[in-house]
Amino acid sequence: MTPGRPVPPALAKPIAPAADNTSVETKTETGLLAAAYGAVSGDSGLVPLTLARRTPGADDVEIAIEFCGLCHSDVHATRGEWGGQAYPLVPGHEIVGTVSRVGADVTEFTVGDRVGVGCMVDSCRECDSCLDGLEQYCEKGMTGTYGANDRRNGGTTQGGYSSSIVVDRRYVLRVPESLDPAAAAPLLCAGVTTFSPLRHFGVEEGDVVGVVGLGGLGHMAVKLAKAMGAQVVVFTTSEAKVAAALELGADEVVLSRDEAAMAAANRTVDLIIDTVAAPHDLNPYFRTLRVDGALFQLGLPSEAMPPVSPGALIRRRIAYAGSLIGGIAETQEMLDFCAEHGVVADIEMVGAGQLNEAYDRMVAGDVKYRFVLDTGTLQAPAEEADA
Ligand code: NAP
Ligand code: ZN
Ligand code: ZN
């Protein structure tokens, strides 16, 4: 939707109320009304909503959103799987669009620039983590792009399944023009979340990187590790993905439910990027690592994981780590790296009316490899507009 364009009547009224009658409306004077899709409860699915975006302040960038990737975190959050979820909730943190307005103090972006927003829109800007460019580990807590308490503007942040968003310039990324904007959207979460641990480990030519789970994050890990010169082994539960993994550039594919194949991979891998969205046993993966290997867990299942065997770690000085997205400077570095190496996500575009089906398909592992919402479809269905 073009910024400033009137919102369809059905969307311009307050959204379908949540159980506690809260509205998604936040303070607005001359901010845009945005067409959006979000959840009003854990079992509502995604429904059309209206958001009132704030008037851009001096440091703000207003963005007309073109595309937004569908991350598995959006599913966890909208379905309340992580607990304590406030509704209404408009998800989406893989945002690409163009700048439609800037505040008086914004010099680094101008109207028409192609920009992106990832998983955070603010942090304290003062703590050691923030000063080190690790805003995702802000000691006071980063402000997530959706469902977070907006410490500077009030209200709750609402994400990118919407026609526009207003974000402080410090958390806006420049999307290189050479990247297809729709296929670049997933870089803002899936891309940086896998880029960051690959860089932190110092992956270089000849290293062997294992990728567990070939979904949105996993397929980006394959592409980025290959672009860094690594050999890549994909561990998948899906026989149907073996050929596709090789097509993506994997050098080897191991079916993780095949015990003999897992045993044959003993001591072959330097670094594992684990992206699985459900509880699973990590111990068989530790056995595929060499001495001084590391396993970074990126998936955040809602249920407990089977226990890690200390012996599996101790005997090879293996590091078991977690990693949360990436800092702002690192996200820009990743976007520039992707432009240099021609890396984007493999996507399937969906319209607003297909979001619920897309979520079910994502949970079933039926996507190659990232759904992306075309926000141009965020119109009220005709029958609802008439209602
Ligand atoms: P996704 O596209 O759904 O991919 C997850 C993959 O995990 C699936 O394609 C599947 O791969 C594997 N998998 C799923 N269920 C499984 C099961 N029961 N047993 C074994 N493998 C299973 O999800 P995503 O968007 O990549 O996100 C993955 C996880 O990362 C989610 O939990 C998400 O919340 C989290 N996340 C974390 C961060 C962070 O900063 N750490 C950022 C974004 C997302 P195969 O079919 O190949 O086995
Ligand atoms: Zn995400
Ligand atoms: Zn901080």
Profile the largest sheet. Answer: 7 strands, mixed
Structural class: alpha/beta
**Would you tell me the overall average pLDDT?**
91
Whole-number count of domains: 2
CATH superfamily of the largest domain: Medium-chain alcohol dehydrogenases, catalytic domain
Distance between the termini: 21 Å
CATH hierarchy: architecture of the largest domain: Alpha-Beta Complex
Walkthrough of the structure:
It is built from 13 helices and 17 strands. The protein has helices spanning 9-12, 72-78, 128-131, 181-184, 190-201, 216-227, 242-248, 259-264, 283-286, 310-314, 328-341, 355-363, 382-386; strands spanning 33-38, 47-52, 60-69, 95-102, 114-117, 120-122, 143-144, 164-168, 173-174, 208-212, 231-236, 252-255, 269-274, 289-297, 319-322, 347-350, 370-374. Strands 3, 4, 5, 8, 9, 16 and 17 form a 7-stranded mixed β-sheet that branches. The protein has a 6-stranded parallel β-sheet with strand order 12-11-10-13-14-15, with helices on one face. The radius of gyration is 21 Å and the shape is globular. The chain starts with 8 loop residues before the first helix and ends with a helix. The model is unreliable at 1-28 and 380-387 (pLDDT under 50). Residues 123-124, 126-127, 129-130, 138-140 line the site of one zinc ion (ZN). NADP nicotinamide-adenine-dinucleotide phosphate binds next to helix 2, helix 5 and helix 6.
